[in-house]
């Protein structure tokens, strides 16, 4: 009997897979071909700079982009446009002096120009989201909300473009200098800003509401504020050689995976803030009428934390493997490692209490917000107040 049930289950899965493939449109297959073509072109162009592990990363990236584009169609033009602009920038950027001589590079496509545009768009999106929430009515609300969403897409695209072009710029600094630009606080704050924005944009589309945009963009704007201070106050935007421990392909997967988790935790925390505001608001107030329902916000908090927890778990495992290669041991109770464990335990407990005790609502919203504070200390506070093997991003 069990064998019969297993066969029926397998047949059902095969039928579902077949139905899903049949539901794909010609544009879906064109997208798949574009991803494969782009990956192949990147390999042919830069194979001499890639080792075996980086070739695997490229292949996995292409394999990941295809179903993502099928599931989230709005991401297709984003990827294609950013990719095309990055290719254009590389082709008109033969040396560092070209950034001053070319109008496109100087004002649009160099890493510093793109990152500054990211800051402008994200700060503008924050204002527009709150303006939409507070003042807009009827058709005006839809227009302001659409502009806010467009600014968020533009900011995310500019941030990603900035890091891609900065990657090329590291090679222009000299032989053996090139590296993936996620090695210091300046670069990872750019990564954090556009990653958080992209995670929010996905959920905005899925839940069909932009009322939470201003809250989430507050986290992004805080990142932008720090980034601008770090750029102009500390002159931290200059490209510097990597320390020996960071000269590893592990950095290309460990750091971005970590920051997907940080971005998801940030989204969850700010949805928690919106939840708490609505819980305290009068039923007839604008906040109560415009913000999503409690069940929807609770579900969004849960999905964001689950996403962040999955990526943080993977990042922690990758970090342990990297540590074994760099320092000879998987775990050394370095301050960063200790606080990473605290972050992991915090969100594991959050998910455990939701699943086993059925906790919902206000306590979980407070917990999500406090969790962001713990995560922020792990990310930034450890670098400022503590020293250890991971002290690569001091202020």
Automatic annotation (TrEMBL):
GO molecular function terms attached to this record: heme binding
Topology in the lipid bilayer: Multi-pass membrane protein
Predominant place of localization: membrane
Keyword terms, alphabetized: Cytochrome c-type biogenesis, Membrane, Transmembrane, Transmembrane helix
One record GO biological process: cytochrome complex assembly
Membrane spanning residue stretches: 20-44, 50-66, 78-94, 114-131, 143-165, 185-203, 210-232, 259-279, 300-324, 365-386
GO cellular component: plasma membrane
Entry-linked InterPro entries: Cyt_c_assembly, Cyt_c_biogenesis_CcsA, Cyt_c_biogenesis_CcsA/CcmC
Statement: the UniProt record of this protein carries the keyword Cytoplasm: no
Residue stretches making up the Cytochrome c assembly protein domain: 182-390
Domain of life: Bacteria
Localization per record: Membrane
Protein known as: Cytochrome c assembly protein
Originating organism: Alkalilimnicola ehrlichii (strain ATCC BAA-1101 / DSM 17681 / MLHE-1)
């Amino acid at each position: 009997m069990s064998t019969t049930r297993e066969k029926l289950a397998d047949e059902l899965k095969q039928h579902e897979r077949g139905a899903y493939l049949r539901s794909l449109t010609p544009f879906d297959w064109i997208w798949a071909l574009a991803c494969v073509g782009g990956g192949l072109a990147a390999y042919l162009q830069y194979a001499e700079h890639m080792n075996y592990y980086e070739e695997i990363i490229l292949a996995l990236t292409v394999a990941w982009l295809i179903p993502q584009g099928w599931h989230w169609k709005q991401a297709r033009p984003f990827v294609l446009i950013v990719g095309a602009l990055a290719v254009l920038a590389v082709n008109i950027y033969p040396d560092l002096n070209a950034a001053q001589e070319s109008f496109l590079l100087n004002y649009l496509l160099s890493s510093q120009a793109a990152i500054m545009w990211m800051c402008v768009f994200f700060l503008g999106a924050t204002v527009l989201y709150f303006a939409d929430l507070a003042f807009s009515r009827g058709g005006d609300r839809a227009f302001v909300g659409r502009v806010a969403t467009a600014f968020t897409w533009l900011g995310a695209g500019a941030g990603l473009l900035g890091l891609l072009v900065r990657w090329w710029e590291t090679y222009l600094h000299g032989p053996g200098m090139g590296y993936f630009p996620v090695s210091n606080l300046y670069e990872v704050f750019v990564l954090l800003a556009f990653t958080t924005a992209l995670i929010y944009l996905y959920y905005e589309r899925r839940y069909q509401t932009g009322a939470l945009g201003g809250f989430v963009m507050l986290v992004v704007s805080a990142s932008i504020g720090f980034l601008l201070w770090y750029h102009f106050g500390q002159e931290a935007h200059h490209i510097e050689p990597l320390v020996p421990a960071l000269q590893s392909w592990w950095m290309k997967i460990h750091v971005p995976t970590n920051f997907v988790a940080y971005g998801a935790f940030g989204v969850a925390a700010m949805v928690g803030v919106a939840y708490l505001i609505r819980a305290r608001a009068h039923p007839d107030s604008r906040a109560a009428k415009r913000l999503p329902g409690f069940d929807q916000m609770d579900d969004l908090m849960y999905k964001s934390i689950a996403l962040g927890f999955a990526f943080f778990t993977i990042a922690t495992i990758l970090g342990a493997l990297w540590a074994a290669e760099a320092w000879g041991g998987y775990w050394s109770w370095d301050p960063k490692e200790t606080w990473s464990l605290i972050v992991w335990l915090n969100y594991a407990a959050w998910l455990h209490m939701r699943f086993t005790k059925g906790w919902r609502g206000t306590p979980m919203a407070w917990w999500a917000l406090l969790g962001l504070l713990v995560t922020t200390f792990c990310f930034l506070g450890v670098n400022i107040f503590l020293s250890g093997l991971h002290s690569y991003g001091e202020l």
